[in-house]
């Protein structure tokens, strides 16, 4: 693992961040907000980290997935209440407030997408 700026991943992360902000602003309910947003957020995190470090794609993808799963499982223990942040809109937006199995599925599908794209870029790009 080495530090190295990758402009393509940085631009992709920035575009995904803008997309996430758009989703959070204009889609208050439904599939786009809850499921597609979760699918995109792991791709965003992967691209963000890949912007700054040269690392094995599989290791990074699994690390991002483990992080996403950890945040989701923290919702089971009501982490926002434990930290007295249950009324903080930003904390709710970032950490979420309710555990859903469907979120874990969305995260997993997002990471599978990342691995497929990385595989194609490395072997056919």
- Count of DSSP helices? 6
Which sequence of strands runs across the widest sheet?
Answer: 1-2
Helix/strand structural class: mainly alpha
Number of strand segments: 2
Task: Give the H and E element order.
Answer: EHHEHHHH
Number of structurally distinct domains: 1
Radius of gyration: 15 Å
**Rough shape?**
globular
- Amount of beta strand: under 5%
Description of the molecule:
With 125 residues, the chain is mostly helical. The protein has one domain (2-124). It contains six helices and two strands; from the N terminus they run βααβαααα. It has a two-stranded antiparallel ribbon with strand order 1-2. It starts with a strand and ends with a helix. This is DUF2809 domain-containing protein.
Task: Give a topology summary.
Elements: E1 2-3, H1 7-26, H2 31-52, E2 53-54, H3 57-74, H4 79-82, H5 89-95, H6 101-124
Antiparallel strand pairs: 1-2
Helix pairs in contact: 1-2, 2-3, 2-6, 3-6
Describe the structure concisely.
The protein is mainly alpha-helical and 125 residues long.
Task: Supply the key terms.
6 helices; membrane; two-stranded antiparallel ribbon; 125 residues
